[in-house]
Amino acid sequence: MKISQLKYKQIEQEIRELAKTLPAGAKLPSERDMAKTFDCNFLTVRKALKQLVDDGVITRKIGSGTFVSPQSDQISVPVEGGLRLGIMIWEESDVYGYNVLKAIAHAARTKNIHLRSCWINDFAANTRQQADRLKREGCVAIILPWFPHEKTEEVRHFVSNSPLPVTLPMLIPGLEKNCFEQQGSFGSSMITCTEMLCRYYECLGRKQIAFLGPNSSTDVILQNRLSAYSCHISQQNLPFLCGLVDPGAEAMDQLAERWKIHQGNLSIISYDDEHALRFMTAMHKVGLSAPTDFEIIGFNDIESSRYSDPPLSTICQSFGYIGEWLIIHAVAFAQNRVEQSPGSPRHRLLVRYSCGGRGNIDDALRAKLPNIDLVIDNGEPFTNSVPDAATPASDSASKDV
Known about the structure:
By secondary structure, the protein is an alpha/beta fold. It is 40% helix and 15% strand. The chain has three domains: 2-72, Orthogonal Bundle (Arc Repressor Mutant, subunit A), CATH 1.10.10; 82-181 and 386-400, Rossmann fold, CATH 3.40.50; 188-318 and 345-376, Response regulator (Rossmann fold, 3-Layer(aba) Sandwich).
């Protein structure tokens, strides 16, 4: 009994500390995921959460999840020790952006750095006012965890007029020093990863390898991955099959209709998990499913990829690495230095069921894919990932997080 009590108190304290670093309204992982993370029964997690609910730290909404409660009383509390950084969170951030946000919060907590967050939906005058407010509240730099690729030019203008140095999550021409990764290394891991996925399918004997992604001409990461895919397919003299779709079900349904003629001979590399899951849904509508009729691999290992039907094979992004280097870069920038990551860590391919390769993972296959780690995954959360995506609050006031 004593051990059980220590366990639930430990979990309670860890979640309590995590909540302090997250914005009000941030969504916590599910009980099931936290039980796996803490290696305990979900009832132990539930007991820890109950105390946090009673204390007003978190709020539980039936059917929606567990969220960080508003803690407006913390805004006026002076910060003792450590630097303060501002985090500008795009109100409509995707799952990737929210995972980066949580990684930043975790890295800041371990480095005794205090965060102040605000929500934005553009990079116009209101955002400049938010930046001025962050400066008045003692922030020495600003981090943008994520922003839509089509806002690149607006971001460029904002950075040039910001009252504080700004750290960016991606490379923008002319603002190379603002990116958390060095110019020569940014995007290179994506290129290598895409090449390895092509080789993975080839090692399984696949001859029809397609690329699926968003229809965006401003997405630098997409362009890098498309280039890697195109070069590899051309070098191997394989048929080129690329589907770039607009948001919404209609565009994905139309792609499924076009690609269903490749039934039984279609292996897909998806830009991210969201596009992969949308495509799987569209294929279900025409009576086809993975991995029998097609095979697919996503990217980012979002929560829903583990619970899809079938569970989605995916590349596990190291959000911990991204969050830590965003913090390191921002702190250096505030001190008039530039400290950028020289290169990304190796990616992991979590082999679940959608790619049809679970029975073929052995040392011989791993030897053929030296730049990526193959892991047979049974649904356990990957320990280097950050807990699942936060959900932003609707207000735009600054908050201590």
